[in-house]
Amino acid sequence: MGIRLGIPQVGGPPPDGGLIDSYGRRATDMRLSLTDKCNLRCTYCMPAEGLDWLQKNQVLTRAEIVRLVGIGVSRLGIRELRLTGGEPLVRADLIDIIADIRDQHPELPISLTTNGLGLDKKAQRLKDAGLTRINVSMDSLHPDTFAQLTRRPFLDRVLRGIEAADAVGLGLVKINAVLMRGINDHEAPDLLEWAVSRGFELRFIEQMPLDADHGWTREGMITAGEIRELLATNFTLTPDPRNRDGAPAERWEVRRSTAPDVVVGVVGIIASVTEPFCADCRRTRVTAEGKIMSCLFSREETDLRDLLRSGANDEAVAQRWQEAMWAKPKAHGMDHTGLGAADFVQPDRSMSAIGG
Ligand SMILES: Nc1nc2c(ncn2[C@@H]2O[C@H](COP(=O)(O)OP(=O)(O)OP(=O)(O)O)[C@@H](O)[C@H]2O)c(=O)[nH]1
Ligand SMILES: C[S@@+](CC[C@H](N)C(=O)[O-])C[C@H]1O[C@@H](n2cnc3c(N)ncnc32)[C@H](O)[C@@H]1O
Ligand code: SF4
Ligand code: SF4
To answer: Per the database record, which ranges form the Radical SAM core domain (predicted)?
Structure first.
């Protein structure tokens, strides 16, 4: 699919224009990484031995996070917040951060993307603090395959976390699964059956070149087209009539082949590589150390942390954020789509260090 954006405007962002970029897109979805640390080592994300973690004083504090969210919401038109990482549940003050943000923004949708480890013990407190809903990543229902993909034998703990999130009302629970050729791709129909029979919404995600090991290849990845074919063995998919509204996932209504009249659920397919959705991108990212990344594949980053710590007022912080977003690339960190194209350069950061 091509991209339908025109030529970029010259000049800079209009002062009262929110987080608009030079192609006319407006970011209203803030994705904030709370930590670069993680307790799994998914092969498509992290190296086996982990990364050099940020020092504590390099990471945004609870107060800085709350202030940044406040600036985003009250001055820049942010309408939803996604907390991510690294693994956000490893951050000791996560519940307090959510409670503080909720206190200041009673209506703001706040969601969390997590690997689910420890979620069974924290789900109720997350809900009570004001978390709206949750996405849990789980790529396989088989302990050995799960361990092969995440390099840790923790499937049972993730399943307990998912169950707890659902039980305390953090739904609609969405499950994220990256399919890897020859490892878990054959599991696609089973994963979907498992999800729809529990009332969860599954998202299949195309693997992107954001792994620390730089092992991604365009030929090796499982495409959205292949995912739809894999699912067709057991299911019929028809487009979900709801507006996509800038979301990464293209949603499909799911019917079992054995009962073609009954919609049993919805599945989302996130085709960042083969069917990119950059033309309608509404996302602004803040890394754990307070850098704005206007695009997941940006090679330019704009620091807000030192500005926050220098005593700058909210207006100055908002202005720098706006300037960073004005320079957002057209697509995939470039002026055209093409993950894996000859001129594509993989960012230095892996997914865990950006915030997925
Ligand atoms: N290329 C690209 N991929 C993205 C972007 N945002 C999310 N993704 C991919 O989509 C995956 C799932 O993101 P989530 O935020 O967990 O899920 P989502 O589909 O946005 O979920 P909901 O907002 O909860 O419906 C991420 O892990 C990325 O792989 C983006 O801005 N660009
Ligand atoms: C970086 S993780 C951060 C949150 C949490 N640790 C988790 O795994 O859900 C967010 C999402 O990014 C996805 N992800 C990581 N690396 C990816 C890659 N190379 N391509 C596509 N998705 C990726 C993960 O599957 C996960 O759903
Ligand atoms: S995908 Fe999430 S759980 Fe897996 S290594 Fe990356 S940050 Fe950790
Ligand atoms: S690759 Fe960049 S422009 Fe495209 S959807 Fe993702 S963040 Fe937005």
So the answer is: 22-248
